[in-house]
Specification:
Number of domains: 3
Distance between the termini: 10 Å
CATH topology of the largest domain: Growth Hormone, Chain: A
Protein name: MFS transporter
Subcellular location: Cell membrane
CATH class of the largest domain: Mainly Alpha
Radius of gyration: 21 Å
CATH architecture of the largest domain: Up-down Bundle
Helix content: over 70%
Shape: globular
Number of helices: 18
Transmembrane segments: 43-60, 72-97, 131-152, 158-178, 215-231, 252-277, 289-310, 317-336, 342-365
GO molecular function: transmembrane transporter activity
Structural class: mainly alpha
Region (Disordered): 432-458
Mean pLDDT: 83
Largest sheet: 2 strands, antiparallel
Low-confidence stretches: 431-458
Strand content: under 5%
Length: 458
């Protein structure tokens, strides 16, 4: 497998998804006006996608493990681009909502595969750099999204932002289909369809309940009951959707917990910060965006530089420091009123989050066997979808107490990630792939251990 092509494809897939989310936010007001949509319908253009993608990420990762990460990546990118083009030509808001759900299905196929391809292409001890490149690219896309979206909407209309996704399909998806797929290590693993259905229902209900205003108690209850049924099912089935080699790892569980908590704190803080900047400080949207620019800059820089502290301090030391920085950033933001204080707060948020993204993701992907790398990638992406929903729901519930107290509470939430980070591996030896027990060097020949202890040829 060509590593440069794999890295470029992984970055392209991640950037397409990141850009799509940010440019949609800019396009929604014009979309609402042109299609005569209600506010509830416009909200569903986001909710339909979130529910679809969050509910299917893990199962989509399993499909990549079984049928090949490159093949599933190509299918996901093709479908994502086709759905985007369909949205650009949609005659009404109902079509937009339906196609956004379809886009979410293909986005679920695409996202875990971008990580699964990297795990298959790079030795475990060389994963940090490609993950850093991928995360930095996501940060750039998130920063550029509002600018790109604003320019397209202003010059060409809201439909243009969806046609933006067509070009990457031609450049990366079609060549991926034409390249021969190497033998798949987990191709004989049965699909746990009942487990996939239970997980999809639990996550769909959870995300929908959290994105509803107010939060749906009934949705949370259904999610909890379904999750309990899933746990019972997974303990009894011979080939579970969630392999013990992945979810049974203390390090992977801690890394997933860190990603949920940190992303919840960050996105909750950003939700509150919008009101601080525009209502309390009286800034217009453009100046608000410029004020928060240090977040994007430091996120990109910290992600790019993260492999250095990872080599020196390990995942535990690097992530613990980064989560503390992010919690400090939320704390500074809670009392910031001047431009220097706000800039420092956003810089701390960006530095902390960019570093955590690379360090925690490396633990999740590196410890996964190649045969279950897609599931590991799906869990990582699920954490990054559930976390922001939790954070915004928490921030919304706290806003009645005032922006200052709400941010203090979110700083406390961010601080919860510090003890979770302390459970991460301390050294590279501790961070060996699952199944090695952390003992002995990692081999880089053609043999890779797969779930269940069997050996498969890559």
């Amino acid at each position: 497998m060509n590593r440069r092509w794999t890295l470029a494809s992984s970055v392209a897939g991640a950037v397409v998804v990141a850009l799509d989310g940010t440019v949609l936010t800019v396009a929604q007001p014009r979309l609402q006006r042109d299609l005569g949509a209600s506010f509830a319908e416009v909200q569903w253009t986001s909710t339909a996608y979130l529910v679809a993608v969050a509910s299917l990420l893990v199962f989509a990762g399993r499909l990549g493990d079984r049928y090949g990460q490159r093949r599933v990546f190509a299918l996901g990118l093709l479908g994502f681009g086709a759905a985007s083009a369909g949205i650009g030509a949609a005659p009404g808001v109902g079509w937009v909502i339906g196609l956004r759900a379809v886009q979410g299905v293909f986005g679920a196929l695409l996202q875990p595969a971008t990580l699964g391809m990297l795990r298959a292409a790079f030795p475990p001890d060389r994963l940090a750099r490609p993950l850093a490149v991928r995360t930095a690219a996501i940060g750039l896309a998130a920063a550029a999204g509002p600018l790109v979206g604003g320019a397209l909407v202003t010059g060409l209309g809201w439909r243009a932002v969806f046609f933006l996704n067509v070009l990457p399909v031609l450049v990366f998806a079609l060549p991926a289909l034409l390249r021969p797929e190497p033998p798949v290590a987990g191709s004989r693993t049965p699909l746990d369809l009942p487990g996939a259905a239970l997980l999809a229902v639990a996550l769909a209900c959870l995300v929908h309940a959290l994105t509803a205003r107010p939060v749906s108690g009934a949705g949370l209850a259904v999610a909890a009951v379904t999750a309990a049924l899933l746990v019972r099912h997974e303990r009894r089935v011979a080939s579970p959707l969630l392999p013990t080699a992945v979810i049974g790892s203390r390090a992977v569980g801690a890394a997933l917990g860190v990603l949920v908590v940190v992303s919840a704190a960050l996105f909750g803080a950003l939700f509150v910060a919008t009101y601080v900047l525009q209502r309390r400080l009286g800034l217009d949207p453009l100046h608000s965006a410029l004020q928060s620019l240090p977040l994007a800059v430091l996120m990109v820089a910290s992600a790019a530089l993260c492999p250095l502290p990872l080599r020196r301090f390990g995942a535990r030391g690097t992530t613990t420091t980064a989560t503390a920085l992010l919690a400090l950033g939320v704390l500074v933001l809670s009392g910031a009123t001047s431009t220097p204080a706000l800039g420092a707060a956003f810089a701390l948020l960006g530095a902390g989050f960019g570093t955590v993204m690379v360090a925690a993701t490396q633990v999740i992907v590196r410890r996964a066997e190649v045969a279950v790398a897609g599931v590991a990638g799906g869990l990582q992406q699920t954490a990054l979808n559930v976390g922001p929903a939790v954070g915004v729901a928490t921030a919304t519930a706290l806003m009645n107490t005032g922006t200052g107290p709400a941010l203090l509470a979110l700083a406390g939430l961010a601080a919860l990630a510090v003890p979770l980070a302390c459970a991460l591996p301390r050294t590279d030896g501790d961070d060996a792939p699952a199944g090695t027990g952390g003992v002995g060097p990692v081999t880089h020949d053609g043999d890779q251990r797969v779930d269940g202890g069997a050996v498969a040829r890559r």
